[in-house]
Amino acid sequence: MQKLSIGMFDSGVGGLTVLKEVKKLLPSEHIIYFGDTARVPYGNRSPQAVTKYALESALFLLTKGIKLLVIACNTSSALALNILQKKFPIPVIGVIDPCAKEVVTATKNKRVGVIGTKATIKSNAYEKSIHKLDPDIQVFSKSCPLFVPIAEEGLEKDEVAHLMAKKYLKDLQHAHIDTLVMGCTHYPILEDVIKNIMGKKVTIVNAGRETAKEVKSTLEKHKIADTKGKGGCEYFVTDSPEAFEEIGSRILNEPLSKVRSLKNLDYKDYLLSS
Ligand code: DGL
Predict the structure, then answer these.
(1) CB 43 within 8 A of CB 53
(2) How far apart are CA 149 and CA 124, in angstroms?
(3) How far apart are CA 100 and CA 133, in angstroms?
């Protein structure tokens, strides 16, 4: 019998920072990744548009035979987790709640920074999720919209990344935070620059590790984990695959095989009218 896969989606390469951790923790699983590169970035779009894109991505993955869906995108997790959990017959995991768990353990002075896309910050999803676990934590938020195109263009080592990080993180540098959440799955690509500006005393948290743990426990709970043999990954993107392959292989430290580009025509069955 053919193995069922774990489905994951993001607007582009960002979700690969989550895939990397899932792959490490669950080496026997087969993962199908969907990057909506033709419509990246999601973070500046309306909640309606993000929800529609999330539904379309999930519908596409569902037809590929998946047993669990990971929303490897904070923006879609903030705006569409509930609807996907309601509409789909398989477990659906977002990245915000697992990340909030790690924050609560990491902070000692209960002053936490959250950086993310405009849509994620506007939704207050992190604040809500953190406050459910500890209402005494003070959350300082900042959107960093240009980090996503910088990551998608592979410019994380360029001066532009440093200049933008300096500008975006200025207020957080003076907020006496001891923990900073990279509340966008693209941001770990810029982790060195962010660390450099925030200094050694600030713990940087990203969604990948905690989400991977959540994936493992959910698979075990539903008795659908694959623990034997070697897993693998397949990738689908909605624009040309070259840039995705190049940046993706840098994130995963290995060449990306099996990246397929979906032409509008292949994809049209999954597109919902507005
Ligand atoms: N990587 C996504 C996130 O975590 C989406 C970023 C974007 O497309 O703006 O929010």
Answers:
(1) no
(2) 22
(3) 8
Q: How far is the CA of 97 from the centre of ligand 1 (A)?
A: 16
Which residues face 71 on adjacent strands?
9
Q: Work out how many domains the chain is built from and give that number.
A: 2
Identify the active-site residue in 99, 144, 184, 233: 184
Query: How far apart are alpha carbons 35 and 48 in whole angstroms?
Result: 19
Q: How far is CA 146 from CA 85, 176, 205, 268, in A?
A: 30, 24, 20, 30
Torsion of CA 236, 242, 248, 253, to 10 degrees: 130
**Nearest partner of 111 among 141, 139, 143, judged by Cα:** 139
Query: 244 near 37, Cβ under 8 Å?
Result: yes
| Cα 259 off chain centre by | 19
Return the CATH number at 50: 3.40.50.1860
- Tens-place pLDDT, residues 212-254: 999 999 999 999 999 999 999 999 999 989 999 999 999 999 9
Sequence length of the chain is 274
- 74 with 127, same domain? no
Residues 20, 82, 120, 137, CA torsion sign: negative
Please tell me whether residues 89 and 128 are part of one structural domain.
no
CA distance linking residue 209 with residue 230, whole number of Å: 20
Residues 200 and 240 both lie in one domain: no
DSSP annotation of 224: -
User: What's the CA-to-centroid distance between 242 and ligand 1, angstroms?
Assistant: 20
Last residue of a domain, one of 174, 207, 240: 207
For 22-48, what is each residue's pLDDT tens digit? 999 999 999 999 999 999 999 999 999
The answer to whether 233 is a known catalytic residue is no
Expressed as residue numbers, the domain containing 108 is 96-207
CA distance 184 to 166: 18
Is position 184 annotated as part of the catalytic site?
Answer: yes
